Predict the structure of DotM C-terminal cytoplasmic domain-containing protein.
Amino acid sequence: MSNNHNTSHGSTDDTLILIGVLCVGIPLLVFGGWKIGKVAIITITRNVYGLIELPFYYLQLFIQKITGSNAGYLDFTTNAITKLCYPDPNHAMNPLMHCTANLKVVPFSFYSENCIFPTILIGALLVGWIWYKHAINLKYLPDTRYVQEHDLESLIGELGSYQPHLRYIQRFIQSNYATDKGFYRLLLSPREFIKIHNLVYGFRKYEIENAEDFDDFKGSNSPKDDAYPLLDQSKFEKLMMHQLGQMLDKPSNLSDGEIILYALFLPMACATDERMSDKEFKKIKAQKDMLLHYFWDKAIEHLTSEKAFINPKNYEPREFKYFERKRLQKIVERYWNHPVAKEVFSKHAYVRTALIALIYKTRTLGVLAPCELRWLRNYDRTLWALVQNVGRPSVYVEQLAAFSHYTSEAYYHRRKISPDFSYGWNGLLESLKQYRYADPHVYLPAPPKANEITVN
């Protein structure tokens, strides 16, 4: 505490010394300079200020000649010429070259009084110039440029040149489309998923079957429903097979959407290899940034080139027409046989389960947020759900299959050829018990119409 006191006391002393030096030193410097170089100072000042006053001096001579008066009201504007120079009357038209004043006897007060007008004029010009430059800088300084009111649309337009996803949003405005139906709806909840895919064949009364169910029932603020849906497991498995996709073979067998994701995540996963050179590591990091910008550019190009691309009623995945598959496939092939890639592929049998493992591995180098690939949502909802699911405590059901099988492979630490959807099945059933079903009939398949009933 005493040290802090001494420090603040010393700082105060330094400030007082500095003020004293300035108050004494500046007047001494001015006085000494005037005594030593008075003639030179007056000569330079007289010539510079005299050039400024010349137009007013000639104006005064003109008025004197026209009116016959001395035009004394302009004396204030010509003092540097008439008093500090005191030109020879015989050379009135060239006054500064014929000065007769004895500068050695000019006192400081007389000198300062006769320099007021040019000083004011120069000061006014400087203030005007500073104000002009300040007004220009207000247009370009970030601290002032963005201090303005924005609505959402104008803010997106302002920042669109810096953020590629905002350029995309400028052309595809999500709020113009329904979020509860159509291709651009939000990712489905479990209850919406079973309804859309007609997985429900009946309802069962909820019963406490074990101690865990009893604890859930007892501790819940909102009691369970009287019934929960029963799902058609064969339908569920067919749907999961479609979500799971194909087995892992070679880069040429990957779909266009999968090759895009592999081109991004496979090299980054390989970059976790500690034996990789710094040069190669930096190359992969730069390639990642390049690909992210490339994907946004191609997505924007597709969006703006085809009016039919935006179609909420078309539920099918879109084609990746504008993405150069050959270029992306070369990147994948370059790292396909890397030791890190081989290790991942040895533990995962399917393209999408291996992709999940690659994304997890990539994120050990830092966060690669799903929003970097938000454009993918408008192409393939299943792949978008896969990217969104990685790292979440619960997964979206639109890509439940790959995560169910991935969990099984991760548990057994080996590739599994036979699809395992048990984790997804049990998780879906459990999550469905958390909902209320006020109108159970809306989840059941519609009964056949009279003219559709056939008799065997």
About this structure: The beta strands are 200-205, 227-231.
